[in-house]
């Protein structure tokens, strides 16, 4: 049952982890694809560059007007300078477009306009560096310059808009990035919280299992297995510190009658009441366990034979007069007790102690029950 629960929890945890992983991978992939173009681009700087180069068209027009009014070499030189500035700015704008990585589909028409400018520029430069003494050449230069200026203005204004749109996308992307990070953080927290809860549950179940495997369910006392652990430790400690350890086996007399006359459930209640009474009478360092049907074992570390005898006698006489709640509050039971003691200098094992106490218990039963007998080389009865 617990195994099934644990493996279900394991599957849930793995599924949660895979889900979180998938969500993270999807979000990161989507983000990376979109962010690739935008994240590193400085659209703001590019936009202000474009505003600056838009002034080139104004310079060109001014140079043409001056040349028209007064076709002097000085104005011709101004025109040549303006054209050379435009040429180099066109080149650096192209370079900037490649750097900000605008999607080619978005700026295809701008690109076409740039090609047109590329075609017009050499013609303009040739005219501007030729002889401009007759009106016809100036007129041709003027119209070509106007066509060039139109194209330039269109290209730059389109580009400006594209860059603004890209900057808006970049801002939106950053917003998404924030939300993505918040979502990932929340998922991670959820996952960690789930993991902690699951671990808490697992450890809780483990503790409950340990408790159950060490406890007798009728009386709530330690069971045989828990007693063996405790006794092993107590005996090892006693050997090291040369202290005595006593062990008592307590067995009800004619318990069968209780079951027969009052029913098994009432028999259980009697066992429980006895266990509670026993717990109240012993020291904190003592351990009591139910090791069989109606047989109990009391481990008394650091207790000599006389001390054990005194306590067990008190137990025996208390039980003999104990009103049993499950059977009309009447005292109706006695116990027989066998005690064995190991001294500090002895290295008796639990099994030895147990069989000595069992031997003494057998003697108590044979000698008429309701007795406490300590195991000695010759058994000693009270
Ligand atoms: N109610 C209840 N009875 C139990 C439990 N375990 C064992 N018993 C009963 O305890 C009785 C033990 O019977 P016996 O071994 O003959 O011992 P006894 O009747 O106490 O007689 P002596 O020990 O010889 O004095 C049986 O009737 C078992 O059914 C239990 O968990 N609950």
Automatic annotation (TrEMBL):
Membrane-spanning residues: 12-33, 176-198
Source species of the chain: Litchfieldella qijiaojingensis
EC assignment: 2.7.7.65
Domain GGDEF: 243-377
Keywords recorded for this protein, A-Z: Membrane, Transmembrane, Transmembrane helix
Catalysed conversion reaction: 2 GTP = 3',3'-c-di-GMP + 2 diphosphate
Organism lineage: Bacteria, Pseudomonadati, Pseudomonadota, Gammaproteobacteria, Oceanospirillales
Pfam families: GGDEF (PF00990)
Protein name from the UniProt record: diguanylate cyclase
Enzyme class: transferase
């Amino acid at each position: 049952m617990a195994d099934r629960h644990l493996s279900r929890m394991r599957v849930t945890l793995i599924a949660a982890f895979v889900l979180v992983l998938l969500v993270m991978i999807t979000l990161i992939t989507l983000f990376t694809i979109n962010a690739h173009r935008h994240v590193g681009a400085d659209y703001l700087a590019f936009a202000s560059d474009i505003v600056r180069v838009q002034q080139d068209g104004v310079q060109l027009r001014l140079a043409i007007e001056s040349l028209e009014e007064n076709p002097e070499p000085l104005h011709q030189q101004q025109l040549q300078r303006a054209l050379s500035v435009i040429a180099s700015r066109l080149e650096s704008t192209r370079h900037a477009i490649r750097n900000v990585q605008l999607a080619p589909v978005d700026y295809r028409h701008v690109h076409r306009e740039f090609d047109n400018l590329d075609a017009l520029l050499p013609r303009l430069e040739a005219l501007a560096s030729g002889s401009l003494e007759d009106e016809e050449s100036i007129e041709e230069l003027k119209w070509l310059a106007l066509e060039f200026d139109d194209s330039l203005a269109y290209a730059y204004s389109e580009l400006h808009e594209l860059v603004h749109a890209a900057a808006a996308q970049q801002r939106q992307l950053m917003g998404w990035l924030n939300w993505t990070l918040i979502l990932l953080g929340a998922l991670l927290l959820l996952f960690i919280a789930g993991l902690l809860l699951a671990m808490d549950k697992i450890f809780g179940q483990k503790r409950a299992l340990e408790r159950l495997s060490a406890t007798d369910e009728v009386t709530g006392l330690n069971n045989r297995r828990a007693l063996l652990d405790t006794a092993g430790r107590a005996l090892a400690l006693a050997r090291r510190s040369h202290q005595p350890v006593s062990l008592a086996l307590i067995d009800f007399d004619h318990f069968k009658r209780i079951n027969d006359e009052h029913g098994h459930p009432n028999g259980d209640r009697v066992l429980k009441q006895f266990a509670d009474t026993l717990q109240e009478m012993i020291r904190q360092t003592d351990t009591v366990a139910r090791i069989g049907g109606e047989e109990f074992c009391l481990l008394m570390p650091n207790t000599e034979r006389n001390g054990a005898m005194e306590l067990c006698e008190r137990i025996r006489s208390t039980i003999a007069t104990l009103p049993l709640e499950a059977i009309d509050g009447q005292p109706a039971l006695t116990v027989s007790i066998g005690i064995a003691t190991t001294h500090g200098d002895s290295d008796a094992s639990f099994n030895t102690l147990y069989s000595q106490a069992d031997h003494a218990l057998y003697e108590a039963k044979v000698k008429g029950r309701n007795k406490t007998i300590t195991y000695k080389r010759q058994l000693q009865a009270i």
